[in-house]
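1st attempt posting a full record on here, be nice pls
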Amino acid sequence: MWRAALGGGLLTVFTAAFKMSILGKHFPLFVEGFLTGTNYAVSFVLLQIFGLALATKQPSMTAATFAGIVRQNRGNARWVKIADFVAEITRSQLAAALGNIIAVVIGAIAFEQLWQRMFSKSYLPLKSAQHVYQTLHPFTSGTAFFAILTGVILWMAAMIGGWCENFSVYHRVTEAVAEHPFGRRIGRQRMRCWADILERDLAGWATSISLGYLLGFTPVIASFFGLHIDVRHVTLTTGTLALAAARFGTSSFGADWFYWAVGGIGITFVLNLGVSFSIAAYVALRAYDVPGKEQRQLVGFILKAFLKSPLKFMLPIGPDGEIPAATVREVPDPTSIQP
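the predicted structure (as tokens):
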């Protein structure tokens, strides 16, 4: 997870840089939304192709597994497995977020330094860099609301990805591709290979592409109706903040607005993660006919488990209370989990 998150953070530097460049051109609304969404979608697809990780993208996909644990277990075994599973999700997302942030900060500084050497000027104009700080303040901007909205968008994208996979399975799309007459020209083996790729990656591609365009078009559609609504994804937002901070250099550390912006990043992470997982878990639990009273008991138990052993939600603590030297586990691809 750490390696994947570091790679995802480095890729996000370029995604954030392209985004700021697109916004600086002041294109017509539709063009701006399409270009921004395409930038996001291409980045998310590349993340999947190269096995990289982006913080908060996983929880909405793993909620079905959470609901399955609730459905298939009873008694004390259920509570233990639920606490362990939520702790694993929290740990993996903390690792992904920290890896993303470390890589995106280092990458943004290197990008800014390289840009100054090549073009003798900063990548971001002064007004754009100042605007980044203003929009990330946790109290004087809509950061909290926008982060909640982004959590909903993360869940919606995962739903679209799951729907596309279910559509493919129900209508036997991969079998149709494998047996398509075009295989007579290029070979049956090649068509079967394409069918295997489609079966393995369809849900992930659909999720990545839909997430990219949902993030890109949401501010544009809101602006069309006269609403000032934006999106706040923790890694992408950190990328823009890092580019702005790199533009001001070490003087950023002496300014209050920098620390307020960092606080906004923390709030964004919590809300992205919490909202996307909560909605997905609620939908999955309803699908399994888990009563509302039992759902509230689950929430209460998870909170008690966190208060009892908060370190367990941050580090892989063993049964004896010690951190194991190495932990190797086979983790299934979250996009392959069927609701």
